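Sequence in, structure out.
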Amino acid sequence: MSVNRVQMTGLEGDLVQVDAQAIDALERKLRGRVLLPANPDFEAAIRIWNGMVSKTPAIVVQPLSTDDVREAVRFASANGILLSIKGGGHNIAGTSLADGGVTLDMSRLKTVEVDVERRLAHVGPGCLLQDVDRATQAHGLATVLGFVSETGVAGLTLGGGFGYLTRRFGWTVDNLEEVEIVTADAKVRRAASDEHDDLFWAIRGGGGNFGVVTRFTFRLHDVGPEITGGVVVWDADDASDVLAVYRDVADAAPRELTLALVIRLGPAAPFIPERWHGKPVLLVLACHTGDPTDAARDLAPLRAAGRPIADLVARKRYVEQQTMLDALQLDGTHNYWKSEFLPRLSDPLLETFRRQGEGIASPMSLEFIIQLGGALADRDADATAFGNRDAEAIFASAGCWWPGDAAGEKDGAWARGAWEALRPYSTGGNYVNLQTADDAETRLREAYRDSLDGLAKVKTTYDPDNLFRVNRNIAPAKEPHILEI
């Protein structure tokens, strides 16, 4: 590779001139490759889901091995360059890119190895949820992942993670057995309950603050391959009656059942009559991983509520359930989200939720409440860095629109207003993976609550110079900590 001297962004936002020979030397050490803006693959490598984020790194490194990751970390550290890590590129705040920095694009590290006998899955950091679900469901096994199949496993997990299986098995990080991670000193470490347990505690929710994970190992559970799932849709005018039934069904639900409420404008989908296209509708997504007879009994009151426009609840493959929301998360849309964890759902809370749904302008925007609780409370509050084990549900307002959509642009303000209206009902916590780039430092404290000071101490031990700062950043603590090797 032959390039001129490259101007890059330093750790403090200053400009750093990096000698072309240093970049050439980096590329020679890699099994993977280095991409510069002139490379035809560069644009694809920096494309991320949230179209509101526009950042261009100076170079992209696409590693093919853990050693490649180590070399990239050494390069960024030695030159004092901003370093970002891109897994699935699905983070709302756009933290997988840094203007003028080095982006580690992990997309080529995409292996999934399923150990059926030990019920473990060894997962590469470039994997999407669908990669893991397909591999594990071939054996009737699953771990706790999110709701959109094109989400990256790495970002989801490091921020805590939740999905349809959370009520049975806890947060995604509760199902993480160990990781292989490259820390700021470019050393490879195994973090688990019996080795570097402080680091293992921190990465289970602390985001990308502590290094680059090059392998995740997840605990697997018997799930599927078929479950009972789908969606029931009502006219939003029926929302008050349906919400009351929803709360009763949710309160009585076994851990095998998870219910999600959604208010949005009716999509032009074949299962929704045309008269409701573009009109406010209420949806309940259901996933029941228990016995089919139990599922029919548990869901019967909800399916009988009001006058459903459509009822698509049926026996289906779990991997199909995991793709149901993909159409709402299209690459390139503008996204502005806000979230709060909620205690038990009250009448005033649900009424506020209903009223806020009336303000949605864009067909892509929505607000949701997803049922949690269950297994979350089985562990101590401080078992992992990501706590929030008092949450019985999560609320989020999601302003989503295509670039140039004037009506949709109003939904950024709507999302913030809906969040402010629901915030008085919060547990006090929020989901760090749904924080936006403009969230204040106080939101980080609210997300981690009592864990934040402990995270700062672990940060000081493993990344005292804050090399890994392109994220929802946890600054090192002021007092020194000595790393034990």
